[in-house]
């Protein structure tokens, strides 16, 4: 992919959210990447979250740290695949960190592959799995972060991103999304039992997500339970 194509990809990322701001250039000291230890940055992120939300508990600080570490690579992969049928080499990605936020990223080259959805999803799964395991193991050095815990977070994030893709690409049918949900879960070696989290809403006959994980934002002063939080289902069952 040319530099111009990368610039177009960055523009499309910023249309999703201005926080998803990309650039070409060498990664700066202190950026989060696969090329070495990120433990100082991860400790700093966690402690800043602890400071900014002292009323919350450990599970929120851990979940929020994980979500911040992984949200940009996930969004980037989905935008590249579904908008441009391409995938940058995510191992070249470095992320900006400041305080209790991770936002903005860079690539030091324009290495990229193009192809069909199935091949790109498979490649994205391999690259992101390697990246996420690197982050998880570093988190686990600082605070207990087990594979089973993050697997639920990743599964929910993948399915949520697919529903967002469908909202932007109305031509994508429910069958298409369900098929791709299976492809993404397989690419991450996650059980397809998570497909049961997707269901057709009786209110508008559209696909919705019933999460299996909780972000714990309700533990913060301004936070409330999300509409698709599993805790809502539990409270209704009591």
Write the layout of secondary structure elements.
Layout: H1 3-16, E1 22-24, H2 39-52, H3 58-84, E2 86-88, E3 93-98, E4 101-107, E5 112-114, H4 117-142, H5 147-168, H6 174-187, E6 198-200, E7 207-209, H7 230-237
Parallel strand pairs: 1-4
Antiparallel strand pairs: 2-5, 3-4, 6-7
Fold and architecture overview:
It is a single chain. The protein has helices at 3-16, 39-52, 58-84, 117-142, 147-168, 174-187, 230-237, and strands spanning 22-24, 86-88, 93-98, 101-107, 112-114, 198-200, 207-209. With 238 residues, the chain is mostly helical. The chain has one domain (3-192). The chain has a 3-stranded mixed β-sheet with strand order 1-4-3. Strands 2-5 form a two-stranded antiparallel ribbon. A two-stranded antiparallel ribbon has the order 6-7. A hairpin with a 2-residue loop joins β3 and β4. It is globular and about 45 Å long. The model is unreliable at 234-238 (pLDDT under 50).
**Helix-strand pattern, N to C?**
HEHHEEEEHHHEEH
What oligomeric state is this? Answer: single chain
Strand order of the largest sheet: 1-4-3
Low-confidence runs (pLDDT<50, min 5 residues)?
234-238
The overall average pLDDT, rounded, is 92
Taken together, the total number of domains comes to 1
Give the amount of beta strand, in percent.
5-15%
- Helical amount: 40-55%
Which structural class do the helices and strands define? mainly alpha
**Biggest sheet layout:** 3 strands, mixed
Protein name: Siderophore ferric iron reductase, AHA_1954 family
Please tag this protein with its features.
12% strand, two-stranded antiparallel ribbon, 238 residues, 3-stranded mixed beta sheet, globular, mainly alpha, 7 helices, 7 strands, single chain
């Amino acid at each position: 992919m040319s530099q111009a194509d990368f610039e177009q990809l960055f523009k499309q990322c910023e249309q999703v959210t201005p926080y998803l701001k990309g650039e070409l250039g060498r990664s700066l000291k202190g950026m989060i990447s696969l090329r070495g230890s990120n433990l100082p940055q991860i400790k700093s992120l966690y402690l800043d979250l602890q400071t900014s939300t002292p009323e919350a508990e450990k599970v929120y600080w851990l979940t929020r740290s994980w979500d911040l570490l992984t949200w940009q690579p996930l969004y980037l992969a989905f935008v590249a695949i579904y908008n441009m049928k391409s995938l940058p080499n995510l191992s070249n990605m470095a992320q900006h960190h400041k305080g209790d936020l991770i936002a903005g990223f860079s690539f030091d080259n324009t290495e990229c592959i193009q192809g069909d959805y199935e091949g790109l999803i498979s490649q994205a799964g391999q690259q992101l799995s390697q990246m996420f395991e690197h982050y998880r193991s570093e988190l686990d050095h600082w605070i207990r972060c087990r594979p089973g815990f993050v697997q639920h977070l990743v599964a929910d994030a993948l399915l949520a991103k697919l529903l967002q893709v469908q909202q932007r690409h109305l031509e994508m049918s429910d069958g298409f999304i369900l098929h791709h949900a299976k492809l993404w879960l397989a690419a991450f070696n996650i059980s397809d039992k998570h497909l049961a989290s997707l269901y057709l809403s009786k209110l508008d006959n559209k696909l919705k997500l019933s999460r299996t994980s909780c972000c714990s934002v309700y533990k913060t002063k301004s936070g409330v339970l999300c509409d698709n939080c599993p805790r809502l289902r539990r409270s209704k069952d009591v």
